[in-house]
Known about the structure:
By secondary structure, the protein is mainly alpha-helical. It is built from eight helices and two strands. It has a two-stranded antiparallel ribbon. α7 packs antiparallel against α8 (about 255-280). The protein is rod-shaped. The model is unreliable at about 140-150 (pLDDT under 50).
Amino acid sequence: MTQRICMVLIVAAASLWQSSAQEAWAQEGADSASTTTEFKGKLPTTPWYDGQQEHLIPVQVTPRADDSINRASRWLPKPKSVSVKKDSTTKTTPLNPNNTGVFGSGFTLGNLFGWVLLISIVLMIVGVVVYAIGRAETKLSGNEKEDGKLDGKLPDQQTLERIKHLPPELRRTDVNLRSECERLMNQGEYDQAIILLLGHQLLLLDKYGLLRLARGKTNGKYVRETRSNHADCAQWLRQTADAFEHSYFGRHEIQDDVFVQLWNQNASLEQAALAHGDHS
């Protein structure tokens, strides 16, 4: 009996809860419908919502992969470099596609004229340099006359270098050897004049290739070298060297007639040396 009463109570409670739930659901649906009706048509149309059709519009979002290069953000990854494929059909247009150059080459008249002008300028510059060097050498030896004599000027740089190879007793760089020798001869100072005369003759013969000055060579060696090239010049040089050795080392005085003879022979030696230099 008691069990039946409990069953009845349970069934009654379940029926009561079900009816209450149905009423609540119905009320919620009514409220929702009223809300939808109230906002229906009030939302404007946007890129993501259609107000007329009342539905959402899908929006395609494309992320930018190259944005991280121009930003200081450290959390963005460095985008991959995009390789551009070259079109294999692209061809390089030649500078002269019709081959209309001179003699069918790639050079036009303008190119040829430009090269000719460039070569002419280079040759002109080389010619000017060669001419300047020649003028400088002429200026260095410009104090020497055509007959091999000196015009009284001091030795130039080239002569000073050659004087260094003379014997120590003949090295005079402060005077012109020939001019000073002539001055001392006119004053009768033959012992000093003979030193300068021998030095002058050795420099002259070296200049025109009849001998080669070098430290350590003796006067006899110079005479033998000169004899192999010019016998007369060797004889005149030998007589000057003998007079120098008798005066400088032997302390013998040189007579007037002896020095006059040596001076006249010096003129012949100068002319012979110059002629030998012109033919060599």
